[in-house]
Amino acid sequence: MFQYAIRRLFGTLPTLLLIIALAFFMMRLAPGGPFDKERKVTAEVEANLMAAYHLDEPLPMQFVRYLGNILRGDFGPSFQYKDFTVTELIWGGFPTSLKIGGMAILLAAMIGLTLGTLAALKQNSAIDYAVMALAMTGITIPNFVVAPVLTLVFGLWLSWLPVGGWGSWSQVILPTVALGLPQIAAIARLTRGSMIEVLRSNYVRTARAKGLPEHIAITRHAMRAAMVPVVSYMGPAVAGIITGSVIIEQIFSIPGIGRYFVQAALNRDYTLVMGVTIFYGLLIILFNLAVDLMYGLLDPRVRYD
Amino acid sequence: MTMAFTRLRLAAIAGAFALAATGAQAETVLHRGNGAEPETLDHHKSTGVTEANIIYDLQEGLLVFSPNGEPAPGAAESWDISDDGKVYTFHLRADAKWSNGDDVTAEDFVYSLRRAVDPATASDYAPILGPILNAEDIIAGKMPTDQLGAEAVDAKTLKVTLKASTPYFLGLMVHHISWPVHKATVEKFGADWTKPGNMVSDGPYMLAEWVPQSKIVLKKNPYFHDAANVKIDTVIYYPTEDIGEEFKRFRAGELDMTYSVPTDQVKWAEKNMPNEYRNSPYFGTYYYVINLTREPLASNVNLRKALALAIDRDLLVNKITQGGEQPAYEWVPPGVPGYEQQPVDFASMTQKERNELAKKLYAEAGYSADNPLKVQVLHNTSERHRKIAIAIASMWKKTLGVDMTLTNQEWKVYLDSRDKKDFQIARAAWIGDYMDASNFLDLFVSTAGERNDAGYNNPKFDELLNAASLNPDPAARQKQLEEAERIFLTDLPIIPIYHYRNLNMISTKVKGWVPNVMGFNLTRYLSLE
């Protein structure tokens, strides 16, 4: 399995190169540049700015220069946030996004798996319908509605929790809930669906026939197989969540990297866009690999050579 | 027993005093909301208001803003102006110091002014220093920086030579582009000099902490010459992109001051938090700029006037924007000392009269219900601009029958379109950098390049502005600028719509906040009770 993992990782290098090339060239297609402002600069100042950031060189040359730099770990300065390098911004913001995202996923997994299993065991009962209705609401209501409502109710009306900001434990709760709710819904639905199927299978019937207590039959036997679709979903989902949500970070004023995905593009901050794109690409690749490896652990029928 | 009891009581009283003393020494912290994350804290490179708010707390220049926004002595305690108005001699305070204890010297200012105009610094605001001798040539790369008209006579005396007499020069010295940087720090750390721990500043505060997108913490500078009067020990700036959420944080008590107020909350704030809601004039104009290279608006001034007449500005500010804005019938906003406003002739008409005249001019231009004028209005993506444009579209439709199409573009694309003159009418705004009419009028001089996106070209206008820039008599100069604005508004390359207001929520705990038309409220003048 180790060799499989290494081979997979090497296989991703061409994908990564393609991502970098596509992002690099596509970004330059959008009209407007990083230094366009309403207050116009003189032609000389603009020429100086472009030269300082190598934006006056032909594109292919800029691309090669960029590749050379990232191989040395230099992702360049941010064009928009001039006092910081891209590396400083991403490394500074990622732990925050990871913290919130990680907790949201953990919360979502625990609650989602429990609710989904419960719904599957009591299929077509009142509990099943209640869980599915809740799941549907969680998936359909967008988080830019949920988040402000949460701040209004818990921050202003009840004054139980802070409205925004980052630094104390109480400021982690609302964003985690807002981020996790749609995931709880999705995971619950997936778990229910796959669990229903697994419960019908022969080996679960055997386990029950043998007289195993129900909770052992579920947790030790059914759960592992039922988790396969959930894990497939969670691979890219986790990568997406831990890189932060633009909306949650904006509403709660959280210093994560989620906002950079949108802001950097709007600001034409070429280096920051490249930095977060590569970072996100890497995470997706790693998590997809992790998911594939997990299959081996979950389903004994899967073999890797 | 009595002795012991008395000693106990004395001890208790002493203890109480000690506690009270520590209580009195507890740190005062001000929490300020501050719009978008600053692009940089290098004041020779920054361009926005969010950066300026922080910089005006960290640094100090020759002059600074007083609480009501007027220029006041800063690092310079006095100055002499030569008879011809071309030479300014600034006498620096003996006790002006940097946050590491170094003296602030005239050499610091010479170094910094040269750095600001140096093409290598690529500073957006450097052209503001144009009045200084040779500044424009240095910015254009035609002369080396040591030719700048700034000289250190001795450690505490700075001599600045101007190209021509510039009555508003002292006002320019309040802008952070002219403020000093600490030479040794900049040379040692290069681009990293603005990081906390590296930065050395000469203003009331020092940079203690900077967490991007979260907070910027400033602590009192013990070496500041007026430190005794700086009441607030720590000020924390919170970048807040969503003004709705900023408003909620203020209501929850997490912020003491906000950057702005969402327009849909203005009525609520006026009613429920009248002591905290502040609405004051702001030195800016919201307008529609007309592309004078595109027909039919290009050659027909009466058609442009018809469009300008048919906008019911009172309705717009009362029902649509609702922020207490002032309808604008002139280009330069009110507040410039010594300058008389130049409203257009239709400012004194009623809206009914304006609509009548508009219909007449529209018909004379050959348009009617069967042959309507088609216009396109460009704005950057924003609910506010959309609402205003839709209101104006319906006014033009109802009164004249004009067919308007709305185009909204993302900010950078919108700027690009304006640069390339790829629009017919575009929404625009200009906030003044310093309190002088030339800051508004210079935008439309024919040689202004991309800045003049109307493509306005009137030789008389250019001539007046040029003459004003060389005129040593301040009163005569104002008259020339006023005449220039009259010509400008007769030609109507723009349609002024409203003058901006500054909307803030200020907690009742904050004392010393005074509205000022430039919108800068330095923390050094504030206190918390």
- Here the CATH topology of the largest domain in chain B equals Dipeptide-binding Protein, domain 3
Range of strand content of chain B? 15-25%
* Mean pLDDT figure of chain B: 91
Provide the number of structural domains of chain B.
2
Overall 3D shape of chain A: flat
Helical content class of chain A: over 70%
List low-confidence stretches of chain B. Answer: 20-24
Structural classification of chain B: alpha+beta
Major sheet details of chain B: 6 strands, mixed
Q: Return Rg of chain A in Å.
A: 24 Å
CATH class of the largest domain in chain B: Alpha Beta
Beta strand count of chain B: 18
The radius of gyration over CA of chain B amounts to 26 Å
β content of chain A, as a range?
Answer: under 5%
Structure, explained:
With 305 residues, chain A is mainly α. Chain A has twelve helices and no strands. Helix content of chain A is 74%, strand content 0%. In chain A, helix 10 packs across helix 11 and helix 11 runs antiparallel to helix 12. The model of chain A has no long low-confidence stretch (mean pLDDT 87). Chain B is of the alpha+beta class and 529 residues long. Chain B has 16 helices and 18 strands. In chain B, the strands form five sheets. In chain B, strands 12-16-11-15-13-14 form a six-stranded mixed β-sheet. In chain B, strands 1-10-9-8 form a four-stranded mixed β-sheet, with helices on one face. In chain B, strands 4-5-7-6 form a four-stranded antiparallel β-sheet, covered by helices on one side. The longest helix of chain B has 23 residues. At the A-B interface, helix 2, helix 4, helix 6 and helix 10 of A face helix 7 and helix 13 of B.
Could you provide a short overview of the structure?
The complex is a heterodimer of chains A (about 300) and B (about 525). With about 300 residues, chain A is an all-alpha fold. Chain A has helices at about 1-25, 45-50, 60-70, 85-120, 125-140, 145-155, 170-200, 200-210, 215-240, 245-250, 260-265, 270-300.
